[in-house]
Every structure is written in structure tokens, then in C-alpha cells.
Amino acid sequence: MTMISLQLEQLITTLKDENLKLTLPFGVGMHHAGLQQHERSIVERLFVQKKIQVMVATATLAWGINMPAHLVVVKGTEYYDGKTHKYIDFPVTDVLQMIGRAGRPQFDDSAVAVIYVQDIKKNFYKRFLYEPFPVESSLLMALPNHVNAEIYAGTIASEQHVMEYIANTYLYRRLFANPSYYGIVDTTPEALTQFLVEVVDNCIEELVLSNCIIINEDEQSLISAPLGAIASVYYLNHKTVRFFASCLTPTATVEELIKVLADCPEYDEIPVRHNEDQINGHLQQIMPLKLPVDAALDSSHTKAFLLLEAHLSHIKLMTDYITDQRSMLDQCFRILNAMLDISILHKWLSTALSVIILMQMIAQAVWHTDHPLLVVPHFSEEIIERIGTDLTIPILKNHFGLDKANIEQARKKAIKKLLDMTVIDEFQATEAVDTLLKWPILQPRKCVLCDTNQVFEIDYLQDERWPKYITAESDMLYRMLFTVELIGPYKFETNAFCPRFHKEKTAGWIVIIGEKDTGELLCCKKLSITGSKQLSIPFRMPKRLGRHIFTTFIMSDSYIGIDQEYNLHCDIVEKKVSDNSIL
């Protein structure tokens, strides 16, 4: 340690990690994803400035940060893989990257790298370090996903195109140069060609099983199917959309969707380390949703389920679990968007609404059964009882006058009101009011329903006891036109306010038109709104005659408690005119 005591004490007061507080006075720093950003920055700065002499870090440090050292010690070349339940070797590229951190050109003429390995692997690593080592292709394992994306993009349209695609890859070169690596015994040109034919056939078969592509038997052409498009757009494994197609149901609840999300193939690789099955068992006991009795506690999907519950329940986790939780949450929104698209594809209204609610829950780290005001900092159940349990965020903002033009004056009055009504201090009241200001309120304006011949003005605030029915023709394409406006000082903000989510997220809005009585989803549109926006939502009237109540849902994918729904009463009669494509 080369720091004076006063500097050290000042630094330690800014740290939250207890282990780091303990090791820094001895000149030993730690660096891992479980630390907060400012803690990692402090450790990096101290090591670069040579104020600490030893850095203990995870393997990812070698890739993410440029902090060379005179001596690098790689303590083991294996890690525990929860999927296979055994220790497996680090990729050789990772080991090379780790030892590549040895050497500081501005300070040293030489450097030392030490690798601790089992004795039986010593010769392998000696050869690996001192002799040229070929780089092999890993394309075979991911080939169906690549081909699916190319078919969706239109660059591959037949099996012959797949063969040509492979012929232009690194895999093709290495296949003929080192066939034994790919499990090929017969190395004759004919056998290698036959191997490639089988690879293409298996690839196409996998995509057909996943309903990602359609084979046109007459022309032998490959056509992208809706599930294939969804997998490509959201960068998902084709097995994931196959899994969703088999597991999603027309009336899936939020709780069921949490289990489906955790069980999807995208989370196959979440690490389950040695003895973490015991930690998972302990977590399971304190979580609100329980796993099946026969659930494997050493499964990656069990861990994903528990990590998601912990996020929603604000359960404090150990460092490794925090890292895994962030990795899991990083992927969840694109997976949930794929779930939503599949629900839309099947016209499942209830499931689509549940998926959107789950998005809101994850963004704000709350359960949908929690009181909506619990997303406000420092608001507890006791404080909400004092304020009013029947209040929502829009109503509370209106009650405090935070939706008025003079924001600063309303803000001061709201803080004073909150101090009078509750036991929180001024700092907490200020933070709570500032959060309410950041919460968007969406206000719909004039709304009309039109076809090619006529326009109907819709009163979305009409009394539901005496609704006015609009006469519409069956199986006709109509268009709903209306304007929505965000209210508040942050109405032009594109990023969502998600203080409990670990990274920035773009705020999105979803408009759905559906019929609650039948559970049918008629149309869905995803969009972003800043300020005000004119919306045009096309949808086709059902063929069933008689009176129908269609509901327009305006929902956020990030904010909970501000969703709106408006009813459209229609009396559907026989179609009298031909459909018009102008709409």
C-alpha cells in the first residue's frame, strides 16, 4: 500500500462493499461485476496509479478493461457449468487474453504470466502457449439461427443457397483443413461433401420443426414463416420461439408467463456454480411464487426463475447472483417482445395484456399485485394508508396539482402537503415528488372511427350505462384515428424512468384493440410517444353480427399503474360494400 492513511479513510467511506473495505488497507483490490460502478473505478484508478499492488479479478476483466500488470496469475483454467453440472475449460482465447495483460510497456522491460493447471493439462497448455494454435469454427452449433436470419432477410431462398452460404464461411475452410476436429472420420472429398449435405438437411429440418420456415414443395424454395421472422427480429434462438409456441396459452396469467420466461432456451447458459443449489433452495423458501416440488435446484432455469422473483421482491443477493441477475434482465425485454408478438399472431388478448404487465413489473421491479404507489421512493404501505389507498399515480399527481402549468409552484406545494400527511422527511418528500413529476400521464384527445365512406366521432368518456352504438359492417377494414398527448415537464423524454432497473430503457407504448367477451385481439401497434402524436390504428371488424364492445387499451411497456382503456360500442351488420384497400 502506497497511500497515506487519511486518503485511504476518505476512499473507504465512499465504498459499500464490505469485502473491498477490508482488503484495500492491505493493498489488495477486487474487481467484479457485483461492485458498483464508482467502486470499480476507484479500484482501477488505484491499481493504475500503483497505490495498490495486487488486483484480484474475474476472468471478464481481461476483456473489458485495459489494466496491464507486471505479473499475471491465472488461478485455474476451469469454471463450473451449471448446464452440464461439471467443470469445463475456459476457451483458449480467454486464457490468451488473460495472460496478455502481463506487461506494462511504460514501466517494464519484461513480464511474467503464471497459469495454474492440473498436471494432466500441463503439456496441452505448453503446446498451446509456445506453438501456433489453429482457430476453429463454432458455426455448426449456431447454423440454424444464422440460416433463419438469412432466409428472413431474403438472401437465402433454397437449400442450394444454404450450401453456397456455408461455402463462403470460415467453417468450410477449416472443415477441409482439420476434419477430425468436426468429428469426420472419412476425409475423402466425397465424404466431406456428404457431411455438408447432411448439415444442410439437418439445419432445414430444425427450422421446419420450429415453424420458422416453410418449404415450397413445388419450387423447393424456403420461405420465412412468422415465427422465423420473430426469432430473427429479436435475435432469438429458433428453439426459443418453438418453446413459446408450445407453452403459451390463450389465457396465460402473469405468474405463468414468469415461469415460461425463466424456462426458455435463452437462459440455458445462466451459470449454476458449485453448491449454488443450496442457495437456490434457501431463496425458494422466501419467494412468493413456489417452484414445483420436483424442480431441480441446480438448473439454470430454476435459478433464472428465482433471480426474476428476487428482482420483483427487492431481495438482497450475493455478489455472484447480482451479476447473473443483471445478465438475465439484460435479455428479458427482447424475449418478452417476442412473447407479445406470438400472442398477437394468435390473437390472444388476455395473454398479450399479461405480457405487457410483466414488462412493466420488470422495468419498475414491483409485482402487479402491489399497490401502484409503491413505485414511488420512500412510500411504504403505512404511508400509502395515510395518503389514501384508493389513489393511483395519475390521481395523486392531480391531487397535488402536478399536472398544472406552473410546475415549480405546484412542486413546492406538493412537498409541503406530503410532509403534512406523512412522517417522511423533507429530502424524502422532495425525491418522491420529483419521481411523480417524471411519471408520464397520457391524455387522449379527439377520436374518430372511419372507413372509406364515413367518419364516426367517438366519445370515449361517455356514460357506459347508456352507450351510443356505431353501426359497422362485418369483415370490413376500419381505421381508428386519435391524438394522444403526454402531460408534464418530462413529456419529451425518450428514456423511461426506471430507478430500480440497472440500465437505461427506451419508453415504449402499446395500443391494443380487442374484445374482452371473446378474448380476441383485433390489432396491436407498438410506438414511441414524445409530446403529442397522432395515431392511426387499422383493424378489421369481426364477421359475427350483432352488438359488440371493443376495448382500446393504451399501455406503457415501462410504467405500471397508468394504463388506460376505452370502450367502442359497435352494432355489426351485414357487409354491404366491397373492402377497399385505400385504408
Automatic annotation (TrEMBL):
Q: Where in the cell is it found?
A: Endoplasmic reticulum; Membrane
- SUPFAM superfamilies per the UniProt record, alphabetical: E set domains, P-loop containing nucleoside triphosphate hydrolases, Sec63 N-terminal domain-like, Winged helix' DNA-binding domain
Q: Which UniProt keywords apply?
A: ATP-binding, Chaperone, Endoplasmic reticulum, Helicase, Hydrolase, Membrane, Nucleotide-binding, Transmembrane, Transmembrane helix
Q: Which domain of life is it from?
A: Eukaryota
The record's section on SMART domains has: HELICc (SM00490), Sec63 (SM00973)
Q: What is its main location?
A: endoplasmic reticulum
Per the UniProt record, the lineage of the source organism begins with: Eukaryota, Metazoa, Ecdysozoa, Nematoda, Chromadorea
Bilayer-crossing regions:
none
- According to its UniProt entry, this protein's organism is Brugia timori
Q: Name one GO cellular component term.
A: nucleus
**Name of the protein this chain belongs to:** Helicase C-terminal domain-containing protein
